[in-house]
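As a warm-up, study this chain.
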Amino acid sequence: MKSFFYGNYFYAICVVALSIEAALQQQIHLAPIVYYLFVFCAATVYYTKAYISESVDTTANERSIWYVKNRKSIFTSQVLLTCLMAIFGLLMLPNIIAGIKNLNTKSIAIILVFPVVGLLYYGFTNKLSLRNTHWLKPFVIGFVWAGVVTFFPLFYIQLQTNTSIDLSLTSCLLFIKNLMFVTVLCIMFDIKDYATDYNQHLKTFVVSFGLRKTIFYILLPLTLIGFASFIGVAFMKNFSLFRILMNTIPFILLFAVAYGLHKRRSIFYYLCIIDGLMLVKAICGCIGMMNF
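Now compare it with the structure written out below.
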């Protein structure tokens, strides 16, 4: 169980599930399975990078200790997954090479902005890292997640069919929905580190405003913005009441879980329940797009 969550395989599953949900809601063809395998490997490697160099000190948490104890097997896994990424990338390349050759500068910029921001999140030094942007940090994470799961399946299909990179209003609204959802989860996750962040004078939302104000003045408005973005898509696409209700469930659960954070929780609560809301959202979204 620890390997599944601490090893970031659950995050990778969430990325794949949200990508499938976004593709269905944009009513585009699902990308081939090799694409999702590539995304799974990339997400696991990316998130593991943040912890692979962890060292145990007096403030180390349970996850950091697990990484130190399993450093050799984690390194092996990173090498294997990187090799698999290269193989899957080469398998996809023939299908999209023509589309890549015809990309203009604007299209290249749109595609690259998300991986570039993702790389800058780790940065080169502590001062040149987007991880230290305090209030902006959750939005940076949400921006990258939303871009990868919402736009990248669309980009792949457009490259595969050798059509120009184009973002519709529907895609942009779904991007905002996913951006707000993941950002809220990130802010909720910061609540776990309140004591550490407070002692280190890190200006997270919960340190700056306190728990209650963070929940009602930050989390609730962001949740409503995300939900309103989906409602915009629902009216544009004439979604049925069933589809709307299915996509409402994750937002209700999101705020319910946020309100329940008044109690101190274990790290597994955050990994299973809070991050698990991403999987719930993807499942509800996919079921909502089915024709019954």
